């Protein structure tokens, strides 16, 4: 009788735990939408590389049923089934049986109708490091990995603080970050409202596009000559189409008027490290600070 009572108590505890795990959870995404989940999602579709990296960092990779075509980190992400992140086939999406889709602006709108089929969609579009931290904590809460998420964010904050401390009293060189130089007369860069602009400031630099009207402006040669950056950083050096190199940039018509070109101050950076708002964004900050202040990051 005593053993039977213990068994019943054990079963009751397990039932309570299961009930707690299945409790509805209402969260708010970056669009301000309230999304109610019936319980921790078991089948997650990630349509941005940053969200894929967050899920892996939180140990939730076994719940990922599919990812976007650019999710390539960590290496295990490459083994996940692929879907088109923009204008996706709803039939294909449904065939994976997801109960939660993590997306971003521009990719989520066609998916919102899936809510009627019980497939929840959340949109993440961080603009600052605090936004990134908040999203990591939120995803940690969703997948029952809150402690792991808190530890990850704490470690990220410590690494950011270390960079900021090293550059606090350093001069702030003017920097132009090129994201797409397919049109060398008007390359794309990062402006205000982008988390990359925040990274430049934290790394001890002055973004020459900081006063642009949009977060992702095109910069004309005339604007560049007026700004005359001390350093040009290429995040399109490994682009699949029209990859740029310091040599190509130096040979562009009219670019010899730029101080950075004349001094050979042109460097490449891993675009994924500075453009994916996930755990590796701190690595991007460290790389950026090392290019801006090499004497302080040896």
UniProtKB/TrEMBL annotation:
<protein>
    <submittedName>
        <fullName>ABC transporter substrate-binding protein</fullName>
    </submittedName>
</protein>
<dbReference type="GO" id="GO:0071281">
    <property type="term" value="P:cellular response to iron ion"/>
</dbReference>
<dbReference type="Pfam" id="PF01497">
    <property type="entry name" value="Peripla_BP_2"/>
</dbReference>
<dbReference type="InterPro" id="IPR054828">
    <property type="entry name" value="Vit_B12_bind_prot"/>
</dbReference>
<dbReference type="InterPro" id="IPR002491">
    <property type="entry name" value="ABC_transptr_periplasmic_BD"/>
</dbReference>
<dbReference type="InterPro" id="IPR050902">
    <property type="entry name" value="ABC_Transporter_SBP"/>
</dbReference>
<feature type="domain" description="Fe/B12 periplasmic-binding">
    <location>
        <begin position="43"/>
        <end position="296"/>
    </location>
</feature>
<keyword id="KW-0732">Signal</keyword>
<feature type="signal peptide">
    <location>
        <begin position="1"/>
        <end position="22"/>
    </location>
</feature>
